[in-house]
Amino acid sequence: MKKTTPVLMLLCSLLFALHLPLQANPGKNYSIKKVEAELVDSPQIPGGPSKRSAGKAGQWLEIDVTFDRHDTKPDAPKFSGDLTFNYYILLNNKSSTKEGKPTLLTGTITQNEAPMEKGLHAAAFLTPQTLAFFFDGKPPTTTQQAIIDIGVSISDDTGVADQYTMKGKPGWWDNQTQLESVSLVPDRVLSKDRTPFSALSWDYYLPAKTKSGN
Fold it and tell me: 26, 126, 172, 208: which is deepest, by most CB within 10 A?
């Protein structure tokens, strides 16, 4: 009977370690690669009624989520079904609130028809009025002034597929201690089709599912 040499044992250990990542999450079909935020001006759309705004021109907070779809099943459909994106936007407005807590805005957007590609994009928006309201009438002029962090999770019919955060640890929005230190406000996050950007960038962003489900 031959004895196992130290070199052979080392090689077996390395091969086992290299194999582990391949089995870490074999059913994961979506992965979020990047989340970016930017303050953008309202689009100027010609041809509409010439009505002046009663207020000053404001800026929207646009959130751009880059993700990949990489189904491993040979019979996977070319286009996905419904994908649920949950957004957690932690505003940098502690000094503007009576409670002395930053505000956590949350929202859910359903996207669909994601092709089997890398570098897909989903979008979410905060209105200029929302930013003005939660900053006590003094909306931020830079993204650094506007947000502390943004978290995003993506789910399909099998459950949560991936989650991502710009700065902190993914999943901080489920931490009870974290939630006690913020003011939670739901339903303030808009899909692209509910904004004046709806007619723009159709080749860039995935479509959001309409309320009728069509």
Answer: 126
